[in-house]
Amino acid sequence: MTRAEEFEELRPLLFSIAYRILGSVSEAEDAVQETWLRYEASPTPPASAKAFLSAVVTRISIDVLRSARVRREEYVGPWFPEPLLSDPYEDPERSAELADSLSMAALLLLERLSPLERAVFVLREVFGFGFPEIASAVGRSEAACRQLAVRARRHMDAGRPRFEADRRRREELAERFFDAFREGDVDGLRALLAADVQLVGDGGGKAPQWKPVFLGAENVGRVLATLVPLFVRLGGVVEQHQVNGQPGAIFRDPDGRVLSTWALDVLDGQVQTIRTVINPDKLRHMGPVADTWAALREASQIRRPAD
């Protein structure tokens, strides 16, 4: 097998590692590309391509994350990962770990860890790497990596998100939610909200939003009562998808351009959290992005149909 073939076989794994460390599709893709350039330039083939490439992409991702943290401190409003519709890497033996680690809630928890803790946690808990491989990847001793893993696990366990255990029930509730949205059924939407539901938006100061966070069924219900009729009058499209392994949807304008993504946390038969990504910079990997300011103006100018 040639180096290029080996690399392409491992590309899904490398992207999945980088995305979980970075929370960014574009930065993960860049890290994978840089990994290929270093692999191609290495004078002798490594004993294990998987170990070598995983170590390289991890080191690159740690460096990128350290510089990205400064930018995130200056970010306008809540910061969310770039939404990912599907994980390219599959491992039946670790499917639960892979799915849980991909959710917006889990990735936001990872943000609390130091770059080294985050990398160690991802390699150990998500992908099942051994400590000798992890130590080589992050440039620390095995003992230090074990300590980093313990600290990271403690932080993650303390805030671990809870989801409806039955994935089918999650999807069914999400289907009802987005069907009600399409139909303009605000009462139907309200009926699915938990009393302490949160609606949180990541616009990055580059898209219209009333405020970053709405708390409670009454406040979220008011937002939906304003937003849903505007979206329906605009002729927008709600395209149901898995978003970061959770029930969600892509919202598009009538021309098919992406307006936002929504991801739902579902528990006890109710929607507990709605996370929307509106920042156009985080949506470009999904295709053409709409001008949300223009869409909002257009929807506001469309007359309501006569009663």
UniProtKB/TrEMBL annotation:
SUPFAM superfamilies: NTF2-like, Sigma2 domain of RNA polymerase sigma factors, Sigma3 and sigma4 domains of RNA polymerase sigma factors. It holds the Pfam family Sigma70_r4_2. It comes from the Bacteria. Gene3D superfamilies: 1.10.1740.10, 3.10.450.50, Winged helix-like DNA-binding domain superfamily/Winged helix DNA-binding domain. Residues 7-69 form the RNA polymerase sigma-70 region domain. Residues 105-156 form the RNA polymerase sigma factor 70 region 4 type domain. The keyword Cell inner membrane does not apply. Keywords: Sigma factor, Transcription, Transcription regulation. InterPro entries: ECF_Sigma-70_Domain, NTF2-like_dom_sf, RNA_pol_sigma-70_dom, RNA_pol_sigma-70_ECF, RNA_pol_sigma70_r2, RNA_pol_sigma70_r4_t2, RNA_pol_sigma_r2, RNA_pol_sigma_r3/r4-like. The keyword Transcription regulation applies. Belongs to the sigma-70 factor family. ECF subfamily. NCBIfam families: PRK09636.1 (NF007214), sigma70-ECF (TIGR02937), SigX4 (TIGR02957). Interacts transiently with the RNA polymerase catalytic core formed by RpoA, RpoB, RpoC and RpoZ (2 alpha, 1 beta, 1 beta' and 1 omega subunit) to form the RNA polymerase holoenzyme that can initiate transcription. This is RNA polymerase sigma-70 factor. It comes from Nonomuraea mangrovi. The lineage of its organism: Bacteria, Bacillati, Actinomycetota, Actinomycetes, Streptosporangiales.
